[in-house]
Each structure stands twice: as C-alpha cells, then as structure tokens.
Amino acid sequence: DPNFGAILQYYRENIKVYPAPHKKLTAMESVALRRIQTNTYTNLHRLHVFYPTAYKDICPWCGATPTLFHITWECTHHNEEHHNMNNTEEQWEALLSSSAIFDQRWLVQRVEMMARASG
Question: What is the pLDDT of residues 1-14, one digit of tens each?
C-alpha cells in the first residue's frame, strides 16, 4: 500500500508540463521563467484586466491584444529581425519546454526586454 508521500510525489511528477529552471539561472531568472511558463508574467493585457482605466488592451505597435505571447513572440510590427524568424506557437511552446540554459535565459531576456518596450 503506498503511503501519502508516495502518492503525492506521483501526482507532482505527472502534472509537470514544463521543465524546471536550469540550476545555473539566477533566482530572479528562475522566477521569471516560471512566471513565463505559467502565463503569469506581467504584460499589458493582464494589467488591463486588473486596471482597465490605467492600461489599454492594445498592442502599442499593431493594435492587437497585447498578451505575453503576442508582445514577445507574435507581433512583427516592432522588430524586423524578429519578424523574419516566422515565429509560430509551436516554436514558442518549444522554448517554454526547453531545459537548455541558453534557451531559458534567452526567453527570459526577450520577455523582459519586450515588457519594458511595450510599457
């Protein structure tokens, strides 16, 4: 008969969608990555939901809804180099699912840069 700890561990392991942050990431990078992976990283759309009179629900570059995915990955009106990458949702998910430190750090840096740029 499995004990409570074994059952809890089984469920913890089976609900993991994304890998843990790489051990060489800083604590701040690790927290940012987890917030990105769980779609809780602060962005214009989320701010608009909480403060509709203070934040517009409009991408500053193209007018679309400024979700984290859109501002960081999908919008092509603010960065021509990024536009030429032909980014897809599958590529975004692949980055979120990567356990490589280069991918994780690049994603955190990209999200932070675009969050600052979008306001």
Answer: 578 888 888 777 77
Any domain includes 110: yes
Residues 6 or more apart whose CB falls under 8 angstroms from that of 26 comprise none
Distance CA 11, CA 111 (A): 30
What's the one-letter identity of residue 19? P
Whether the Cβ atoms of residue 23 and residue 35 lie closer than 8 Å to each other: no
Global pTM?
Answer: 0.80
pLDDT in tens, 21-35: 999 999 999 999 999
Contact criterion met (CB below 8 Å) for 41 and 118: no
- On whether the CB atoms of residues 29 and 21 are closer than 8 A, the answer is yes
End-to-end CA distance of the chain: 55
Gap between the Cα atoms of 29 and 27, Å rounded: 5
Per the structure, the count of domains in the chain is: 1
